[in-house]
Specification:
Elements lengths: L1 H11 L8 H25 L4 H4 L13 H10 L17 H32 L8 H24 L8 H9 L2 H9 L1 H13 L7 H24 L2
């Protein structure tokens, strides 16, 4: 009885059921690693070796995980990895390169989600899933669902227009020089506002509804794109 009470108490503080935590951990390692690697790779292709020199041009999860951002995934259902260092001095066209570097992270997560859905439909269509024992099939479906939703979450979450998220960096590079200067001037206040929204009950009225609606829209679009191909 005590153990059951402890489990129930723990689950109250988690964004996921305990039985899904192993799938969340694996999905998290994949999603964060791919996201930050994409930033580093695109920056390197545009001529910036900073991330590479600091060991961030790698698919090793250890190089990319952020303790607070990772913890928030389990508690709040969203989070972030360690930002990849970028030195715009190396870019021939800093604003254009900056946009591509910022977009690369979220888009990489969208690609992972799309590829996962595609592969899952292939397995289902050729009968691999139905041939599995029921408990194995359930485990595969749970893992796929977590992997898809975490990557879609990172895609949507990182497009929020708050520093230091990618959405803010994209807007910053698109803005005229005068507005960009103002954004830089007040960026620290934006970070404080973002953290305030994340860690207070206001999250339930701001970031969470945006995430839930955005994730639902993106997931429905991906399913609509792939399901007719396989007759689902």
């Amino acid at each position: 009885m005590k153990r059951r009470n402890c489990v129930e108490t723990l689950e109250q503080f988690l964004a996921f059921p305990l039985e899904l935590i192993p799938f969340v951990v694996i999905s998290l390692l994949i999603a964060f690693t791919v996201h930050e690697f994409a930033h580093a790779w695109v920056a390197y292709k545009f001529g910036d070796p900073t991330a590479k020199n600091q060991g961030r041009l790698t698919l090793s999860p250890i190089a990319h995980l952020d303790p607070i951002g990772t913890l928030l995934i389990f508690i709040a259902g969203f989070g972030w990895a360690r930002p990849v260092p970028v030195n715009r001095f190396y870019f021939k066209n800093p604003r254009l390169a900056g946009i591509f570097v910022s977009v690369a992270g979220p888009v990489s997560n969208l690609i992972v989600a799309a590829v996962t859905i595609f592969l899952f439909y292939i397995l289902a269509s050729i009968g691999v899933l139905s041939a599995m024992p029921p408990d194995v099939q359930l485990g595969v479906e749970q893992f796929v669902n977590v992997l898809i939703r975490l990557n879609i979450m990172l895609f949507v979450f990182n497009l929020l227009p708050f520093p230091p998220l990618d959405g803010y960096r994209i807007i910053e590079d698109l803005a005229p020089a005068t507005i960009r200067a103002k954004m830089t001037q007040y960026e620290s206040y934006g970070i404080i506002l973002f953290l305030f929204l994340v860690i207070t009950p206001l999250d339930a009225y701001t970031i969470t509804p945006f995430l839930q609606n955005g994730m639902s829209i993106v997931e429905n679009i991906l399913i609509t794109l792939f399901s007719p191909i396989f007759g689902f």
